[in-house]
Amino acid sequence: MSTIEDVTREFEQIIPSDTAAGQSVQERIIQMLEELRFEDRDVFGIRLAMEEALVNAIKHGNQMDPTKTVRIACQIGQQRVRIEIEDQGSGFHPEDLPDPTADENLERPCGRGIMLMRAFMTSITFNPTGNCVVMTKDRSEPEPETPAGESA
After folding, report:
1. Are residues 74 and 82 in contact, defined by beta-carbon separation less than 8 angstroms?
2. Which of 83, 102, 105 has its CA nearest to residue 29?
3. Within 13 Å and on the Cβ side, how many CA atoms surround 137?
4. Whole-angstrom distance, CA of residue 125 vs CA of residue 131
5. CA–CA distance from 52 to each of 47, 66, 71, 151 (Å)?
6. Does the pLDDT value for residue 144 go beyond 50?
7. 63-112 tens-digit pLDDT
8. 8 band by pLDDT with thresholds 50, 70 and 90
């Protein structure tokens, strides 16, 4: 019988350019993280980053084209999560994106996804084409427990 310390889980799935299909893959990954007892704050950040990456792949990469697909590959170890999301679009150059924190962009309804992904994940990298993102998250140290009767 294996223990939680030596479990590594991985899978690859190809989904249609449909956000509902993306949601089911997200839930599968979140369930695995919870089974491996990742910290709640890690699960929250990974969920948010995955959602942003999947929406970007479906909406911007594949242009909502139902004939195109998105590939998701995931490896979850005891100390690190690696998620790769690849669309069939022509790609982009992340360095060309406008700064979402610049005054002229504060009112724009889009443009914050990659900034959020960078904030919540340990690393994010793009392939040279710009149609595949690899995100990793190192497990956070557990929050110290507060003794009963004390507030944090």
Report:
1. yes
2. 83
3. 27
4. 11
5. 9, 19, 15, 34
6. yes
7. 999 999 999 999 999 999 999 999 999 999 888 776 767 777 677 766 67
8. confident
Q: Which residues contact 97 (CB under 8 A, 6 or more apart)?
A: 111, 114
Helix (H, G, I), strand (E, B) or coil at 54: helix
Every domain of the chain and the residues it spans: 4-102+110-138
111, 114, 117, 87: which is closest to 17 by C-alpha?
Answer: 87
Place of tokens 């310390």: 5
CATH 3.60.15.10 given to domain 4-102+110-138: no
Pairwise CA distance, residues 41 & 14, whole Å? 27
Residue 102 in tokens:
């610049």
Q: Tokens for 7?
A: 């479990």
Backbone Cα Rg of the chain: 17
Distance from chain centroid for Cα 35: 18
C-alpha to C-alpha distance for 53 and 86, rounded to whole angstroms: 9
Four-residue CA torsion sign, 58, 118, 127, 27: negative
